[in-house]
Amino acid sequence: MFLALLVLAGSFALSTQPAHAASEGVGYWSDGAFLGAYKTGVDGRQAYCADLHADPPYGSTAGPERITSLDSLSRQQLAEMNYVLDRWGQSGDANVTAAVALYVWSVASPGMYNSHGMSGDDYYVARTPASERGTILANLLTMRQQAAVNAVTDPSLSLALDMADQYNGSLTVNAHPASLTGSASLTNAVFSDGASTRNLAVGTHPITGTPADGVPSYKIGASMNIAAAGYGAALDLYATPGQQRLIAAVAGSSTGLSAQVESPVIDLDFQPEITTQVASRYVAEGDPFVDGLTVSESKGTWIHLDGNPIEVTAQGTLYGPFDEQPTESDTPPAGAPIAGTETVTLTGAGSYTSPGTIIAPESGFYTWVWAIDKDAHAEIAKYLTDSFTDRFGQVAETSAVPFQPVAVSEADQHLAIPGDALTDTITVSSSNGAWLKKDGAHIPVVFEGTVYQVPGTLPPAQNTAIDGNAVPLGTVTVTADGPGVYTSPSVVAPSGGFVTWVWEVKKASQPEWVRDYIAADWQDNYGINVETTSVRWPVTVTSLMREYNVHPGGRAFDVVTVSGFPANHGDFTGDGYWNADLDELRHTVYGPFATDAELADDLDLTTAPVLAELTTPARNGVYKLGYTDDDKIVPTEPGFYVLVTTFEGDDRVQPYASSPTDVLERFYVPPADTEVPVTVITQATPEALVGEPFSDTALVQGTTIPDGAYLVFRAYGPHPAEVGAVCESPFYGSNEIPVTQAGIYHSGTTTVADPGNVYWVETLYAADGDVIAEGKCGAPGETTVIIEQPDDLLVKTNAVPTVVLGEPAHDVATVTGTVPDGARLVFEAYRQHTGEALCTAEELVFTSAVINLDGPGEYASDEVVFDEIGTYYWVETVIDKDGLILHRGLCSAPDETTTVTPVLETPEEPGKPGELAQTGADGNWWPLGLAGGLIAAVTGGMLLFGRRLAIARERNGYVREEDEAFEEFKAQFEGAKEE
User: Fold this and answer.
1) What is the CA radius of gyration of the chain?
2) What burial class does residue 771 get, using C-beta atoms within 10 Å of its C-beta: 0-12 exposed, 13-18 middle, 19+ buried?
3) What is the Cα–Cα distance from 645 to 654, expressed in whole angstroms?
4) SS3 call for 850
5) Which candidate, 752, 888, 745, 776, places its Cα nearest to that of 827?
6) Is residue 824 within a helix (H) or strand (E), and if so which, with residue range?
7) Cα–chain center distance at 624
8) End-to-end alpha carbon distance in the chain
9) How does pLDDT run across 305-354, given as a tens digit for each residue?
10) For the whole model, what pTM was predicted?
11) DSSP secondary structure, 708-733, as one string
12) What is the DSSP code string of 343-356?
């Protein structure tokens, strides 16, 4: 509180004027007597007679003279008279001036006024018209009442300043009388309405200091003036010698009151405050953090000394990293990490920028807290009201350093087979710090994994760039809701070869709100070994025993056709992660068995008797078994025998084992001089897709087959598997197939449109229609399971393996699965010049016509005649209606090689059969063995090589390498007949 100051100011000034005659003013005349005001000739004011007993003042009147006493009147009487004369003495209303005159006489000459034996009021009012007397007396009463209440002998005015603080205070006005009002003015302050001058009444009035900007101290001043006319024990006197004295209220120019006051020196301070806005909400790792400061004063103005603003130091502390936006609070949490501090020198309100010396070290949220420490400012601390610290965790003061999501993955399948569901396990994390959160939950990140088919048949080489010839098989997404381990959706394995995963994070693929929190796009390497799966190629082995009945001590012969191995199988020696090729096929002849019923799928080969064990390289080709002394197959005991071909499998090719039920791989050694009864053993296609051709095969054995015998195959269904075997009305019946001798006979192919089980029944008839042998509905090996076409588009190809220069070649694609409308197929052939498989524009020598795909099925390319000997790789491509690649084959894929051989010179003399004539014990193996083999070779073409391919080859007179053995047998058979 500041000292209240009281100043009393007020005085009456005395003055005189030259003499002039007075005259009647406003009032009433009655019988030569006047009641009212006289008009002075001095200043034109109206004055009133103070001497009731004296003559009228018509002489030379002088004045006015300021008097503070009159005869024996008290000071109160003077004050009341002054009050009445001021309020009503100058009226232009005769009823008012008459009342004033009565009031003056009653006070100044009371003895004379009331000397008529009655009230002076009643006596003298009679000088006025009777009609006005009541009004005049009423006015007189009012004057007396108000004068008694309001008149004061000594009017006064005083002011007091009281400051509550540096800016807020009050001005107190004290006046006598309390009804006084006047104009007050402030210096360096304003009233509550913002004005520095205001009319005030007695009381306390709030004020606010307004020092000049930047000053360290100031004073507040106040002054006030009041016009106090009519107050005080004084009158103006007009004198007329020998006549009545005239009196009037003290003139207004001389009745003002004034006062003033000034405060002591008020020392000032100010309070700077800081609000900030980071320059960027997102700061990349390695970039500086920059904060924008807005400085203002919450109290006072920035103080200047010697004309210069004082310097205030602000310190900014950058807290972080945090894994999510910190919660706003008054103070940082205990143990909050600090990334760094910076200082900014402040010289006034305005905008500032932090130096930017703190570099973003890793991902996270970083928030600024700015502070001003008063105690750290030494001699200028007194000008600071207090220290300042802003709140922790404000969003506007927080920057986020985006995190970099990455993944380390490992294929869940090291080895797979075509059609398998391939998945990958990814371990995701942030490579540059915390995985950021929002609202308490990790920010989700979409990882995209693409499975690429590796060009060629060898494992991929790791590289930062994706091989331009790699074919994407499918892309899946994993939404990671934080660091951890995730398993991808599956992608269907292709027909064979190596596939490798490549994972990436693309900002453009993320929800829009997520993108700013991710540092950059990311992609892992192509061809990482643990991200690679070998889809092992399936091996196909077709074989045919040359004999079905072999005499004891005779020889059996087999021709095995192997396909499905990569063209370079046997050459891959491993790379430290993938194992080397296993280059061995095993051909084991098991037997003898007492009955062919023992040759079932559940035959335990580990304990079965073994006649012979042969090996060939695990490579594509045609292998003749039993033709040399080193690999001869010579059964010595009667019974049934079967040859089983096995491949243990390696990292590129699936294991394979032929079935002991394969009727094409059996032969029988009857007891000496024993007639073999006629029997029929059948083997149907075990499985086919809806719409895909399938068939049945019968092995007819026996030494005496009736003339005119014939076979009929019937197919029933398809029926649901749970229903069981039902053979009531066949949907397919073959033609009557003549059976002239022991051998293999085929039903011909058929198709169905629905899935289920198809049951085959074969019947061998005599010429008269009697049944010689008939199968049973649902017999083992006589069911073809029909399955739906797969959802995914699959393409399996089989090119003509070998042609002589000048002969045509072609490729055949078997398309299964869902074929999109408008899909098209193109075949290409590439001439190979080196040991490395290359299928680029430089090697391209043939492009087929575009083939429109109308659904699953077999599609053959145009015929092409290659003009050079050598190796040619076929590649098939399926595209959709918009030109997008749906499938592309691999360069050097199995069964996609055509070898063009030179034209062989025709020998002058056909070769002799040589040792082959000795296979039967008594030389009688030709009718049963060779003839049966020829029939099998002729009638088995569709089963072994495919319907369309066989037709094309038959049309073009082409004989494959694997068929050459049968041609040799045929030539020998023809030669034997001639001999």
Assistant:
1) 64
2) exposed
3) 14
4) coil
5) 888
6) strand 824-831
7) 64
8) 148
9) 999 999 999 999 999 999 999 999 999 999 999 999 999 999 999 999 99
10) 0.66
11) T-EEEEEEEEEE-GGG----SS-SEE
12) EEEE-SSEEEE---
